[in-house]
Prior knowledge:
Elements: H1 8-17, E1 43-47, E2 50-53, E3 58-60, H2 76-89, H3 99-110, H4 123-138
Antiparallel strand pairs: 1-2, 2-3
Amino acid sequence: MAEHLKLDKSMAMFAEAQTLVPGGVAGIRRPYNFVQGEYPIFFDKGKGGRIRDVDGNEYIDYLCAYGPIIIGYCEEEIDNAVIEQIRQKGFCFSLTQPMQNDLVRKMQELIPCCDMAAIVKTGSDATTIAIRVARAYTGKVKIARCGYHGWHD
């Protein structure tokens, strides 16, 4: 028989979170979708492709934080570039920065079929754009989907 994970801190934090946050957690990985007490709810840190929960259990992050962490957590070269950008110019403006064009030109260089690109912040934004483009191109309104595709309506 497999040994049970020690999840005391995670479960205590979840109990508190349920009094503070609707459902106890943000995101799509709702604890009620899993066997209670058998699944970690709170992670503490990550390095490379591994993550650790608040109870000290270590895992391989096959989900890559749902996509954006494909290179890994706490990668020094990437972290330093982000910190430098924040220190020198800031981030998350309401208008576009010139680096958008640099990024899209690099994407076009690396991806032969990339004629244009939309840079977005979330998977829901990306799915919304894809739906709008598909509707505009096809003239159809209905969209068939399977599985999780964001939080949008």
